[in-house]
UniProtKB/TrEMBL annotation:
It holds the Pfam family SBP_bac_3. Keywords: Signal. It comes from Candidatus Magnetoglobus multicellularis str. Araruama. This is Extracellular solute-binding protein. The keyword Signal applies. Residues 1-22 form the signal peptide.
Length: 260
């Protein structure tokens, strides 16, 4: 009898120990519609894309598991700051954000212009930065575009929660132009909404964008940061990141002079 009780207690202890270990290595991460690098499928309720695969693999290599949820960036970043979620993909570096998060080494960077979509026939309305003050400019709330735009209070900004909301406001005339970091994502959404009444203004702003994951300084998993960062660095330098992007027929981010 005593032996049976001892065995039962041992099994219970092992089960609780397993649950504790599993909980300690569960990483909570949010995704959002950021095609083609992050895509949320409404039918399957799952996130996919290279940014999903890269983090899944890095976390797996340290013995953990990622729990993905879908939220718009503004809500996700609010949860990240409070440590409710642990990591967020594709967070642009700013001095303010460094007070709340630690950035993993960049998996690369992209050089692309920030553009302004306007209605067809209005391409010449915005030819220089100062012209933006004449119009209502749609922008995603919480998104870092460039300092001159983000800090300028003379520009009348119409805020949207995500790309879909931004596109709807543009289609229905709530704003005269929209600022865009990702032209392909905008065009895909506009096509899905059966609208082709857009063109791009003459004025553009060139920007070098580092591709970073960020971890909350209040995360209970913060002790894993250095291990995860090493895994992400190795995946970048060994070509694993490049391979993952190519699996999706996407051009991988450049890494030769990316800031680390």
């Amino acid at each position: 009898m005593i032996q049976k009780i001892s065995v039962t207690l041992w099994i219970i202890c092992m089960l609780f120990s397993s649950y504790a270990i599993a909980d300690n290595l569960l990483i909570k991460v949010d995704c959002r519609q950021r095609p083609p690098e992050m895509i949320y499928n409404d039918d399957t309720k799952k996130c996919s894309g290279p940014l999903i695969d890269i983090l899944n693999e890095a976390v797996t290599q340290v013995g953990g598991k990622v729990e993905w949820e879908r939220r718009p960036f503004q809500k996700s970043y609010s949860l990240l700051k409070r440590g409710v979620i642990d990591i967020l993909p594709r967070v642009i570096k700013t001095s303010e954000r460094k007070e709340d998060v630690r950035y993993f080494s960049a998996i690369g960077y992209q050089v692309k212009p920030i553009v302004f979509a306007v209605k067809k026939g209005h391409e010449n309305d915005i030819q220089k930065f100062q012209d933006l003050q004449k119009y209502r400019i749609g922008a995603k709330r919480g998104t870092v575009y460039f300092d001159e735009f983000n800090d300028n209070r003379s520009i009348y900004k119409i805020h949207a929660i995500d790309d879909i909301d931004l596109s709807r406001k543009f289609i229905h005339g709530r704003c005269d132009a929209v600022i865009l970091l990702d032209i392909k994502a905008f065009e895909k959404i506009m096509k899905s909404m059966k609208s082709d009444n857009f063109a791009y203004a003459k004025y553009q702003y060139p920007k070098k964008i580092g591709n970073h994951y960020a971890m909350s300084l209040k995360s209970k998993r913060l002790k894993l940061f250095d291990k995860l960062n090493t895994k992400i660095q190795n995946m970048t330098t060994t070509g694993k990141v490049k391979q993952i992007y190519e699996n999706y027929n996407l051009v991988p981010p450049m890494i030769d002079t990316a800031k680390r």
